[in-house]
Write a structure and sequence with these properties.
1092 residues; five-stranded antiparallel sheet; single chain; mainly beta
Amino acid sequence: MNIRFLSLLILFALFYSCDKNEKLFYRFSPNESSIYFKNQLVENEKFNLIEYLYFYNGGGVATGDINNDGLLDVYFVSNQGENKLYLNKGNFKFEDISKIAGVESLGEWKTGVSMVDLNGDGYLDIYQTRLGGYKNIIGKNELFINNGDLTFTESAKEYGLDFEGFSTHSAFFDYDSDGDLDVYLLNHSVHTERSYGSSKLRYERNEKSGDKLYRNEISDGKNIFTDVSEESGILGSNIGYGLGISISDINRDGCDDIYISNDFRENDYLYINNCDGTFKENLEKNINYTSRFSMGNDISDINNDLYPDIFVLDMLPEDEKVLKSSSGDDSYEIYKLKLGFGFNKQFARNTLQLNNGNNSFSEVSQLLGIHATDWSWSTLMEDFDIDGNIDLYISNGIVKRPNDMDYINFLSNEKINSGLVQNPDLNNKDLLNEMPDGKVSNYAFKNLSDLEFKNVSKDWGLDYEGYSNGATYDDFDKDGDQDLVVNNINDYSFIYKNNSREKNLGNYLNIEFHGKNFNLNGIGAKVTLWSDQKIIYKENFLNRGFMSSKSSGLNFGLGKSSMIDSLEVVWSSKKSQKLYSIDVNKTIELFEENANEIFKNNNDNPIIFHDLSNEDLIEYKHNENVFNDFNRESLIPYMISKEGPAIAVADINNDEFQDIYIGSPSFQESKLFFGNKSGKYKLSQQISIEKDYLSEDVDALFFDADNDGDLDLYVISAGNEFSVNSNSVKDRMYFNNAGVYEKNKELVEINQHNSVVKNYDYDNDGDQDLFIGGRVIPSEYGISPKSYLLKNDGTGNFKIDRIFKDLGMITDAKWSDMNGDGIKDLITCGDWNSINVFINKNGELVMDSLFIGRSLKGWWFSIETADLNNDGKMDIIAGNLGNNSKLKPSKEAEVHMYIDDFDNNSRLEHIITYQKKSKEYPIANKDELSKQLNYLNRDFFYYKDFAGLDIREIFSEKSLSNSKKLSVNNFNSMVLLNYGKNFEAIELPLLAQVSPIRDIQVLDYNKDGNKDLLLVGNNSNVSPFFGSFDSNFGVLLKGEGNGNFSYINQSISGLKIRGDVSKILPLDKNKSKFVIGKNDDNISIISLANEK
């Protein structure tokens, strides 16, 4: 009997052990860990989500060793009940000592928590932030000073930290490098009449809801914190809905910066430390757009380039039914209105700001596939599987979804009998019952390196579905990997053990910091580690997770590396130390007193390109006229009316200096500038050109049209706002008459919105002929315009030689010899289109039906050719939309656009769809579709009836089959290598896919004989579904001579070209200087640094 019992016990232990190690993370039950904490929320009529909009934000969690026994303890925050402090007894067993410790923090309403030794006595204290002085909630922030005997004394008032107001969280760091820990107090707001209006409201201070910066005076002999917010440049208004805070040396100058994520309309804040005790709020100068409902954030170097990246969470659902049931981005009109009020661009999705190392950030969350994780709170950026790459953990869920469209409709729609309009006496409980549940899975993403992430939530055992808020990581069992702790609403909190070491996934190094003065734990220390040609950079800050914090110390995952070559630590005092040849799989201690070197700022490294825009070389600004394409065609993906300026470059007067024509938008005169030896460009008045100020110029070409030895000018007219019968959409040609350009009034009329003009003597008769690409038919996006071959009679008179009726919406073209017969062929690309090659056979252009580009359907914007692999054949570079988009078309899952007059009102509608899990969904939501198709409101009165429907459940099969259908299967920009009989498609590097590529230049910047690429683009005039495509700051790709390219980091290339770039053209034969045209912006000029 005893033997049998023993066998069963052993068998149970084996199963238990296997279960604990099956996933990367094992979640302990309360009975195993003895942690029975639960953040239980109880709504009542006086205080609930209706009365307090952050009722369901949950509570934070903090970790740290409160008794210096080497084991990390845990403190949980309860919004309404008692906080709990658990003493780590080892082996994931914990003891509740909250009551005897005196840290239960009784009463409502607690939010975030930090464990930090703020008085420098060697023991961790606890700072608890609260909501207070609002409605019936009474309470001030609390500071529990550690007595060193497992008890604490509440001392917030004595230290000047007993703030009463709308506190969210705190961050402790030494911003002024004086040896003690200061604190940034993150506060939030609630909606009042003062919450709405201009962005100038951010400069009006509010004592209850405005953020605070407190300077620690302990180094001056005073145990007190002093409010230095205003003098330090910290904003503190009631429009700052602060939900997330991270500290990091973002620009790597040795001083600690601050990132604040603000909910609702106010910008996030990026405070750059001036290294003199003050900050400069620089977000709009460095970041193009942010999340709209910014929540938790974290900062870490995800691509190991030594620059910290910023990840901010939002509430975009991944699930199609939830997505179409929820409110999301503003309409385009409201979006533009907010921009007019002075707010930055914001979109409802997670954002990953990739630090370019030159005070610019490229937002790449959609490129990485981490943009949609639903109602997200904590993001933890840490190497959980110790392979040397930063992974992501995200906590999720909300008890009730107040952004549910049926709930919003319930509040406002007078047609709903049970709704609030007809029943104004409904109580808060009734309203809460109308909100759907917001339970959703937590997420984990594994970093596969090279900016590729994989959703491993289930594989790692982290896919708990509930309401998880505060979360952080720490090594509770000291085994060299990071465990997790999570605070949940209405459920037990979780402790997860990380099994990376048990699974032998990699080696590690733990670092403990011993600072000086009153920063004994070395908060703010930065460590760079070199191992096996890999460089890892981390920072020792406590704020990790929503309203949460971790202990001091860093963990480096090393993968299979068995030795650390070197390690450098930089302390907040800017003292530094370097160590060499360090063994792995151990904990080392670093002491500030051993740091004898002074940190040197290495941000002034040599760069390849210099921006000359500030040297006033040319005085011109493109001022786009006001027109909203979406008012006519609300369902198209982006505007067509804003694709200028046009630019043409040539030496018109034969003085060996390049001259520049700049084609303007409607209601602005186009200009001609002459170059000279000073490097500046002088305006040449051209009356005939300037008279055509109503035309919208999108392309231009200098060429000798009449064979008289000088350069004439052809200008492409566009403007989606004009009808096809308008003179404003007629192309123009100007003959050069001794330097004066006179309009050719006999030019063949082509009345439509065109895109491109390219010249070549395709019929070999000694004069220059033209290809004219048609962009769109105004108000009929998607219907193929005509494209033309214009034959020159030798005197500059052109006639139509061929009309291409079904070539589609053309965006670019190029004449180039693709088959090596000495005659140039025609290559075209377009919108919802393929790349086509027309072989020139004795003046007749014949489409190559076998060309690989025929099968590559995309939103192509640009084409260039060059011999990229040095084999004597011309290859093709094609600029596409890129993959930093919600849409990811493939041959298996195409994106479609159905075009028809679905409601018989004599206007076309455009139904764009994408495929997901074998279903096809419209990108437009119910409101956007029913605005154009009113009958859908009858078919789907409730949003829940519409949400999650396949397109064929919304439209009949007959209506879809009768419509015109366009498709795309690839958004990658790429090169097509010419092997003679066939071509090979090679995608450009990942960071060339961050935005649409609108123009391409081929150069050899390093003179190694290989062709390099300079790519420009962006498009911010897009539908709210897409947000803004503007993450391209100018991409420089180094050619390897075989058709492959490598991305040159922006900090090395020196490129920081902001805006919607339409053109880039060389200003010299060596391609060392370029002029850049940007829509609704100034002209830019850049130059190779070594030839400036």
